[in-house]
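Pasting two entries for a bug report.
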Amino acid sequence: MGLADVITTLWRNWLKHNPNNPDWQDRDRFVLSNGHSSMLLYAALHLSGYSLSLDDLRNFRQLSSATPGHPERGQTAGVEVTTGPLGQGFANAVGMAIAEKKLAAHYNRPGFPIVDHRTWVILGDGCLMEGISHEAASLASVLQLGKLIAIYDDNGISIDGEVSAWMQDDTPERFRAYGWQVIDSVDGHDPEAFSEAISKAVKEQNKPSLICTRTIIGFGSPNKQGQAAVHGAALGEEEVAATRKALGWEQEPFCIEDSIYAQWDCKEKGSKLEAAWYRLWQDYRREYPKLARNLQRQWSSELPDNFVADYQQCLLDQLEKKPTLATRAASKVCLETAGALLPELIGGAADLTDSCCTRWSGCTTITADSPDGNYLHYGVREFAMSAVANGIAAHGGLRPYTGTFLVFSDYARNAVRMAALMKLPQIFVYTHDSIGLGEDGPTHQPIEQLTHLRSTPELTVWRPCDALETAVAWRSALVDRSGPSALVLSRQKLPSQMHDRDSFEKIARGGYILVRETDELQLILIATGSEVELAVKAHALLAHKGVRVVSLPSVEVFAQQDEQWREQVLPSEVRLRLAIEAAHPDYWYRWVGFEGAVMGIDRFGESAPGQDVAAAFGFTPDRVASRALALLKGHTNTGECNADSFGG
């Protein structure tokens, strides 16, 4: 209710969009970062002509409705991103503005502004209290995102009451300090004043703009406006009646006059805007056919012809010359190949570029003056980096990947969840994947992070054991458009395992037999990442012909395979299984059952050289072999088989 005047002015007079085609490539992007105001967005979508009916509005927050409690991407036409966790929609909008500026710099030509739209975002006090707003706002200013316009709903109220009791920031000065254009003290209930502020914002080419609108929460409610009580609670029948009277609204509920629809309807206007753009696009295709084909392919999220074959052949030739590599280094080799084939790749890291090996030789840095690069230095901003990249992916036309240490995925955890919830094809590159990183100690050594990532729905996690598995992980992540992927990579060098040129497809199934038994199968060693090498060496020490080694680089992908493949790799009748992973053990009991065992770590790490830490936690071929022998002898949980006093 407090933002109704703002949204009316913006949507009816300024927003470039076409309700007949919500996916028009050159539409303005609109993000409601304070997603609890979702009904406001649904009302705007309905009135302006999107396929959202009055019945949909009546079904607000009901099961499987098109009007969920917070806006959800893919569920409601016209909703660009899922919002609700405050501050992230703002960061998504920064990513969208980055994508627009980069694509425009690369594809536009004199007289052909094929990519030319703005990103609008509404945010509230809650968004600004979240630390991610600082991270994202700072980056937006550095990149001079002049087509990003943020509208701050300054109503002074959050759920607990008046925010002045816990937030006394000078928001306009804060954003001026970042380098934004700030238009403050705008009456959000004065359409002319707000429209004048927008006019000033759109004229600014080099700075993102923040319009600070003063509004009254629950505007129109005689007894509750301006109070926290109206933030999330229903007004009640009596107060609704009083509000309707105060506003002079005499129509029955869910009854809207044709004259109001006529004032709001954007279908004709939107169709004309898109038709004019399409004529320009046709001329552009004739003038610049190669550029047009490439841009169309990127918009369509299609890979180039023969991408998979070219990628694999090139990589196999390179990796055969590199028998021992850290998987983070192997990842860089993969990027050298993929980057040359995919101009839509846009990478970045949170101040760990060299450590994460995320920058390949063909990278150029995106700056304010050179937006047509393909690499972003995000600075120490893991949360904003991940959410900004979500916005880049949601915008379309580009394929983002980001990098940081696995343990610092904790900083970005909710943005990873939002990528999965929105099924955005972002690629998270996480390096320094275990206690094997050594001297940096427990603050940098991940223990529980793999369990969390693997437990996140719609997120595919890869933890490769060598260069070839890394190559397959990258290929799978790039081919998969159904959701995000996380590539979990080692700092330490790992030897190549015994593969052949047919291994690509076996690895791509998420789990496969690496070392076969030569007699009746009795025990299966299951491992991922650096621990695959341990399993292979332990297998050799055992000299037992009934032991198999299975590499399981992606449990999610393996679980999606047909039953025949899963049974072939992990036969259900073989109950003796030992999973080996230098991470929290609980996740693996799903795969080893009650008669199996897990060698993992259920406490934090130690600071020492990587090999010493691994030995202290029992991750040596001898200890793996000892644990395997105990299983074969019928002991599943004997004390002598635990990874010393450190491990589990």
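Entry 2 (this is the one that rendered wrong in the viewer):
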Amino acid sequence: MTRKKGYSTRRDLLRKAGVAGVGATTGLVSGIVESGQVGATQVPLGETHADTDVENVNLITRENALPGATDWQLTRVRTEPADGVRCPAIEGFCTRQSVSVGETLGICVSVAAAKSFKLEIFRTGYYGGRGARLLKTIDAVQGQQFETPAKAEKQLRECNWSPAVELKIPGDWISGVYVGRLTTDSDETGFGYWQSYVVFIVKDDRPADVLVQCSDNTWQAYNEWPLRDSVYTHPKGNQGPWADVSFDRPYGKYPQIFDNPQTIGSGEWLCFEYPMAYWLEKHGYDVTYCSNSDMLTPERGLKCKAFLSVGHDEYWDLRQYHSVTTMRDQGVSLLFFSGNSVCWVSPFRASAGGQQNRILFRGGPYGGDYKWAELREQQHGPFPHRGPDEGYLMGARNVDPVNGGGDWVCTLPDHWLYEGTGLKVGDTIPGLIGWEYHGDPPDDLKGLQVVAAGTALQGGRNPQQWASTIYPGPAGNFVFNASTIWWCQGLASPPGHMLPWSHWSRPHGPDSRVQAMTHNLLRRALA
């Protein structure tokens, strides 16, 4: 390998930055990407850039240079009943959606037959392609079996389980999405051990380039634990304001467009959002993570340059909406790599024990007085809440039907979004649109451009028009709307993730054009 003058090897660079374990890693240096470099020094196009000198190796690059885990996924799972969502052999939840270093997190676990179990904590990321790193193992935790709570008012299931483990978050655990793997001792039946996850977010308040908001409100809205108990399962219908859901319960198997019991306990993280984190960390972006509940005020987001809504981000407390609007108006770029986002007002309230932001429900539609909000209320209302027209935040709206599948279709190839993609008018990226999307852009939003548009088919038959948009913010920033839940599937296919499908369509996996567009958006947002 020929080294250009003034360049050091990646090994030398990481050693200079004080990164341990460089000999065993394949992590990339900060800011080096497939289609160029985020920072000032330009590099050739390509997938790897092992010989580029970067002055500032960031926190994410240092973290991902550490050894990844070879065994972090679930291996032996079962649901009871067989067509259900829960794993009563071992299941648990965390007492907070997100936690900072130095704070204590309760991990509540119920184990059948009161057997002991092991808890392993992993941070998900890139880690040389392994997808997670083991941070802590707690062996021989004495388990106990807790009762399944009866349904309360509005079908609420709220577990009053005492923590099996109280974990003080160490000072060197950086922001990220963490999964705890629960593993029982061997079963007396001779079938061996059983496993499930718990999931939590470590947050911070440092200035960072990129803030990823996890869509955990939506994870919980769709969570059917213990048996068809979500906001969608009330006898009155699946779209009304009748059901409350609590974060004080385990996540069951995701019940819709995946059939992947190996994700039990992890919400929708491994299903929809994880490929984005894997890809961002692979390329050394300076990224930090938060929960929906961390965005009730704008302070966290104002310390970052780009705010990312990722995957299926349907349920927003009104305070989130106003926080993100404030961020846009003060110069933060908003990137909606998501679909069906900002659809339902979901007010938080405290748990029975008084902990804030632990219960939510579908309070009413976003949309202001626009036709889609009116239609939702005609079909499913009345609702106690109504949110603003989300089109003026995202650049496009939730439409009806909102679900289906289709191809991404380029409409504005000369836009900077498409630099390096080779896409021309009418060119497609197959299967990228779905499972839900946005459309109907406001026609009076100044500077808005439709960069892609086409038809999605619900059930392979019922057509709806979707649109992907960009419009300028007031301070050199911008707002991008990808208009699909499946954008992240075009970035990466990490361990523990599987491709979704819905309505006779599915994303096809990593695509260099999706990767290039995402780099272009982030490079512009971080400039």
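Dev reply: Rendering is fixed now. As a check, the viewer should reflect this: The chain is about 15% helix and 25% strand.
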